[in-house]
């Protein structure tokens, strides 16, 4: 049974590699969004406040993740999904999707961060902690969105539904992320915001556990 | 007319809470003054909302394990009643905050959490309406209900307590009501009000569920 999980993951990566335009498209999406923000704020003339830098970065990441992960179930055609379900258990399918999209989202977030700091300046003082926050955030956002995209894909107007469904669910996660990343940015003593990091890990664990339990009911329909 | 006793109890408790909340003697405190009476209206509504929404999730879990559409009907009506109490709670809170904090909406962490919580349930109701097939609608929305509730727990109970910036009594250095109320006078009205509002919600649910049953019977 274990092997089917790894086969599914490698299948996701292989499928992605064969249609590289999708990943490149996501990269271009995040870069052009950052560029739009950069030009809108007209950074050279006005200094961006730290709070704005932080909030803007995470809003960009939020929209990128919604746009790139929304396709995880919505774009799979029904026949192929049925074929997966006859081969592997639903738990393995959702876990492989979470791992896959978590990895993709991590790559996208870091790429986004490098470009963002390139044009908007880099005020981060505690880079290691910031990287940890980005990693946890990418996995949290993508695991919640994978499940939500599975839910939305069952409804007819799924592309607009995914935004409505995901914003309120992702908001608490986003608030913790923004708080932790602001602390990392200010470089305050790590022990002072370890609570936030632990809370992020806990929320991640809750989301993955709930998805793992609920997904079998979702695919039955 | 069986099971009528709890409806009478509901009316009695709410009338008692209304009269007692407005007429009983309350502790005299700066800033809060007479607005402390809102404790008997605003806070019990939140308690009632949380009880009703939790019941809704329990019915969603029951639906998933039994595939019985009646359970799903209960889940959605409990969510509806919870949303109603939530809106009332946000309105009474904003009204109170207007006099004590100086503005109806001051970005308090608890206010924000409450607003997000309502957004989640609005999304739940929209998701339901966008699905046509009854069984599928029941299953998908039950899954979203449980999923969103699991994501909401850290939001509603942990986040406001992690920040020290809440203006609510009991947070951020503001003394809680327990500190004011040494002789439990407030509690004498507060707990009956919690039960009263919850019962009112349950009453509403039972009426709506009966209405839906008749509607589906008529449609068939």
UniProtKB/TrEMBL annotation, chain A:
Q: Where in the cell is it found?
A: Membrane
User: Where would you find the membrane-spanning parts of this chain?
Assistant: 21-43, 55-74, 94-116, 128-148, 160-178, 198-219
Q: How does the record say this protein sits in the membrane?
A: Multi-pass membrane protein
Residues of the ABC-2 type transporter transmembrane domain: 5-171
InterPro entries assigned to the protein according to its UniProt record, in alphabetical order: ABC2_TM
Q: Which GO terms describe its molecular function?
A: ABC-type transporter activity
| Cellular component aspect of the GO annotation | membrane
| Domain of life, per lineage | Bacteria
Pfam families in the record, alphabetically?
A: ABC2_membrane
Q: Sorted alphabetically, which keywords does the UniProt record give?
A: Membrane, Transmembrane, Transmembrane helix
- What's the protein name? Heme exporter protein B
Automatic annotation (TrEMBL), chain B:
TM region positions:
39-61, 82-101, 113-131, 143-162, 188-205
**Residue intervals of the Cytochrome c assembly protein domain:** 21-152
Keyword Transmembrane in the entry? The reply is yes
Q: Which UniProt keywords apply?
A: Cytochrome c-type biogenesis, Membrane, Transmembrane, Transmembrane helix
The cellular location(s) given in this protein's UniProt record come to:
Membrane
Enumerate the Gene Ontology biological process terms: cytochrome complex assembly
Matching InterPro entries, A to Z?
Cyt_c_assembly, Cyt_c_biogenesis_CcsA/CcmC
Q: In what way does this protein cross or attach to the membrane?
A: Multi-pass membrane protein
> Which terms in the GO cellular component ontology are assigned?
plasma membrane
One term of GO molecular function: heme binding
Q: Does the keyword Transmembrane apply?
A: yes
Q: Which PANTHER family match?
A: CYTOCHROME B_B6 PROTEIN-RELATED, HEME EXPORTER PROTEIN C
Q: What is this protein called?
A: Heme exporter protein C
């Amino acid at each position: 049974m274990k092997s089917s999980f790894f086969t599914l993951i490698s299948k996701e990566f292989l499928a992605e590699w064969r249609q590289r335009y999708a990943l490149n498209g996501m990269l271009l999406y995040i870069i052009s969004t950052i560029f739009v923000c950069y030009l809108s704020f007209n950074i050279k003339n006005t200094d961006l406040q730290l709070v704005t830098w932080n909030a803007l970065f995470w809003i960009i990441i939020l929209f990128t993740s919604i746009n790139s992960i929304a396709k995880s179930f919505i774009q799979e055609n029904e026949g192929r999904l049925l074929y997966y379900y006859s081969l592997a258990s639903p738990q393995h399918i959702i876990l492989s999707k979470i791992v896959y999209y978590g990895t993709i989202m991590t790559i996208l977030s870091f790429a986004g961060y490098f470009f963002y700091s390139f044009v908007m300046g880099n005020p981060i003082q505690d880079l290691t902690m910031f990287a940890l926050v980005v990693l946890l955030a990418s996995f949290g956002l993508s695991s919640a969105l994978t499940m939500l995209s599975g839910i939305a894909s069952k409804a007819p107007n799924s592309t607009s539904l995914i935004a409505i469904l995901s914003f309120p669910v992702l908001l608490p996660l986003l608030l913790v992320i923004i708080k932790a990343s602001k602390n990392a940015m200010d470089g305050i003593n790590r022990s002072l915001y370890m609570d936030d990091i632990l809370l992020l890990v806990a929320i991640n664990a809750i989301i993955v556990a709930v998805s793992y339990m609920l997904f079998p009911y979702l695919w039955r329909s | 007319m069986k099971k009528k006793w709890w409806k009478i109890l509901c009316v009695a408790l709410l009338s008692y809470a209304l009269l007692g909340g407005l007429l009983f003697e309350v502790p005299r405190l700066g800033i809060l003054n007479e607005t402390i009476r809102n404790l008997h209206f605003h806070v019990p509504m939140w308690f009632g909302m949380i009880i009703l929404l939790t019941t809704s999730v329990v019915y969603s879990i029951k639906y998933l394990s039994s595939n019985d559409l009646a359970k799903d009907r209960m889940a959605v009506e409990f969510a509806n009643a919870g949303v109603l109490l939530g809106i009332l709670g946000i309105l009474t809170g904003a009204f109170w905050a207007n006099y004590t904090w100086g503005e109806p909406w001051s970005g308090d962490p608890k206010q924000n959490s409450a607003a997000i919580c309502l957004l989640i349930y609005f999304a739940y109701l929209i998701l339901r309406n966008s699905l046509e097939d009854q069984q599928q609608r029941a299953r998908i929305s039950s899954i979203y209900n449980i999923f969103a509730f699991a994501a909401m727990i850290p939001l509603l109970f942990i986040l406001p307590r992690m920040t020290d910036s809440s203006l609510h009594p009991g947070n951020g250095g503001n003394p809680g009501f327990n500190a004011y109320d040494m002789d439990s006078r407030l509690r004498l009205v507060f707990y009956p009000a919690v039960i009263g509002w919850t019962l009112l919600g349950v009453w509403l649910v039972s009426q709506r569920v009966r209405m839906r049953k008749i509607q589906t019977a008529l449609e068939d």
